[in-house]
Design brief:
Elements (H helix, E strand, L loop, with lengths): L2 E2 L6 E2 L1 H14 L20 H9 L1 H7 L18 H4 L10 H7 L3
Antiparallel strand pairs: 1-2
Helix pairs in contact: 2-3
């Protein structure tokens, strides 16, 4: 199983594509783990945030990571066409030609 791009040799496993997507987001200043749909602090017992909280304690987290948002950051605040790729499902659907055309210059 994996993710393919039509008319190219690009192919990733789902985890490989996620790594690509995280690095792409970093390049334009987006912290993907804080975005809606990727990581919600306090919601998942398996998130990095929750694992660290169990290891070091809530007080340390509250003092050191007070800057973390209480809710995930919303995609509609980002005015970059790359959002269409970053916030797209790993396993369902496709990007339409108009979306790809907006992404092409980047």
């Amino acid at each position: 199983m994996g993710l393919d791009f039509n008319n190219s040799e690009a192919h990733w496993s789902y985890s490989g594509f996620n790594i690509f997507r995280e690095r792409l987001a970093e390049e334009i200043g987006i912290c993907l783990p804080l975005m809606e749909g990727f990581w919600i602090p306090g919601e998942s017992s398996y998130s990095i945030f929750e694992i660290i909280k169990r290891l070091v304690g809530t007080k340390v987290i509250d003092e050191s990571f007070h800057w973390l948002p209480k809710k995930p950051l919303k995609w509609d605040k980002i005015k970059d066409p790359i959002v269409d790729l970053l916030y797209h499902s790993d396993c369902n659907g496709s990007l339409i030609p108009e979306q790809c055309k907006k992404l092409h210059p980047d």
